[in-house]
């Protein structure tokens, strides 16, 4: 088991390195840097001005070197100008003495996530607040989605082919066929617009960052939860129907155990092993929904930061975002594998 | 010209429809409730030894559901048929129904033919045994026919791009201002914020969506199959490496990947073209290996077939990756131009989809390679590619066809996501994602520009899902 976790962690690290390098390389392609220079400087910069801006801010070094600096395995760049010294690890222009005091390495290994060119703030603090907002959203999504999906799946799966099964399966197919940007738009149209006139909810969730209420927070939560729910429900149904045909369920029936008792006491525990994995693996998928819903409802979380950073080629913020999302993806995979072993004693990890 | 109401002179059908739908809802609820709390139908042995199913509340309510369903369908059919005959005097519904005339005719013909010959049509014919599959197929074919006829300029009432002054954000059924003799006199589903016809844009959007999504899915399948079969069959280092690559791509948040790939700056570097060079070569490799592994013992036949298939494919491939004035521009026979934006959308959708297909094919190959017929082929001394492509692949077609349907739906959702974020496709493009994105900005005041494309996208994806479900059910039966 220890060896397994160790090996998985090594693969995880390798994946994270490859992925961040790809993001790094793509954001550091010359046209992207040129765009960055023009948004940071001014839009009518000549080619020479762009080149000198890039030189002055350390962007014209070779990509692997820059990547090493971002990681913190290579010393950060410094540049001597007439007015003083500036560099990756130094904020602003300083004198030679102050520059000598500054740390040589400043990458994520040293805990320095860099500086966001879009928000003019430390990436670390941006990620912290945005992730907090999204975490809150995700928590409510999971609280709404998981129980309802499980109930839907169990009710559908306990009598395969029955009326209940057919109707609930159709419902779950319908929810998987409705992406967030469709259901979100429909919900906003029905529940918030003045044309329909229901006005039960608020069309934006901006206020929910400070004071989340049912009125301003329910629609975004529902929109994400619905799309993810159908898939989990279908997997739960499949697992439940399989368990219901098992020998020990037949034995229980023949002993005369009542049907509700069979479902709750005998079948449920075994039927919930497979959905556990599905739910965990669904979390990274929810991230997509989060990006869409946060832009749709104007809720300034992680997904909103992603859109802003990508739209403005904010390299270090984008990298931090991809690190976080890769860690989320790989961590959920790891937890689902380990949890599966604990839940199902028939599985052994060698 | 007067503004159209929703149902015009067939408004007498509205109360009937409300009653029918209400009855349907009530009976379905009762049906579910009775099936929860009562036992199912139980067989009763009669005195003469025959077995009958004893009637119970569920069966009675079930009959009610069926009748309510038939009634609802009949009313809806009445709207369509009356609309077809009466046109806009039956209101907006009638006008829309009349515009879709070629689609209705094709659908009826297709269903009549398919139902007539369903026993001779294999899996496709069996689809018509499953009501769910039939409904799904109906919805999908509705949009396919719409896309085909729209591209022939038959359904749309106006040009999808032209703006008519005074029609900005007008509600559905507004008469066209300053319409001349030959013009269609109304904006059936209203005008959007640039005064374009919402109905025509939705109809034209189906062409856009159905032009890219199935083709992109097909390419993703070619890539996934060509890499997944050897990974599953050989295993070992190759498998480890390819699986690592697939997991790497899958670990990317899709939207981040889109934002990184689908920007004008990236198109400028030529990266999507290089990716296209790699990804679009897979159909060539796939069909080449497929034919060669089968016919290599008959050299003359082999050469003919390879030439027939590979030469056109090669010309297509070269025209696809070459584009005048871009990074790759060396091929003189460039038959058509793909705009950079469309190419990059296409490439990134294929790129995102192929790892999942790869994983499915790899898993299936791992399972099938232990079968006896594979061992028999190995004993006969067949080449490994023959075994993979002609022994394993045909035997995993069931799950692959089902996944293909689901994946087209997913690709449509991905394309919509791209449109929703305004990435890739030109901003005036009528595809559904972009139209939803346009419409959502004024959603709290004007509903009509955003809702038709939203419902269109939802119904098409739902149809594909139902079709996949029906296919799965029917293919499991034998």
Q: What distinguishing features does this structure have?
A:
heterodimer, A: 350 residues, mainly alpha, three-stranded antiparallel β-sheet, B: 478 residues, two-stranded antiparallel ribbon, two-stranded antiparallel sheet
Question: What does this entry look like structurally?
Answer:
The complex is a heterodimer of chains A (350) and B (478). Chain A has helices spanning 2-27, 30-40, 47-56, 63-71, 96-101, 123-158, 163-176, 180-192, 214-244, 247-255, 259-271, 273-297, 302-311, 315-343, and strands at residues 78-80, 85-87, 90-94, 115-116, 121-122. Chain A is mainly alpha-helical and 350 residues long. In chain A, the strands form 2 sheets. In chain A, strands 1-2-3 form a 3-stranded antiparallel beta sheet. In chain A, a hairpin with a 2-residue loop joins strand 2 and strand 3. In chain A, helix 8 (180-192) crosses helix 9 (214-244) and helix 10 runs antiparallel to helix 11 (259-271). The longest helix of chain A has 36 residues, at 123-158. Chain A is elongated and about 90 Å long. In chain A, 41% of the residues are buried. Chain B contains 19 helices and 4 strands. Chain B starts with 12 loop residues before the first helix and ends with a helix. In chain B, helix 6 packs across helix 19 and helix 12 (281-295) packs across helix 16. Chain B has helices at 13-37, 57-86, 91-99, 101-116, 122-126, 131-151, 198-234, 236-251, 254-261, 264-269, 271-279, 281-295, 299-321, 340-368, 372-380, 384-395, 397-420, 432-440, 451-477, and strands at 43-45, 51-53, 174-175, 186-187. By secondary structure, chain B is an all-alpha fold. A two-stranded antiparallel sheet of chain B has the order 1-2. In chain B, a hairpin with a 5-residue loop joins strand 1 (43-45) and strand 2 (51-53). The chains are: A mainly alpha (350), B mainly alpha (478). At the A-B interface, helix 1, helix 2, helix 7, helix 8 and helix 12 of A face helix 1, helix 8, helix 9, helix 10 and helix 17 of B.
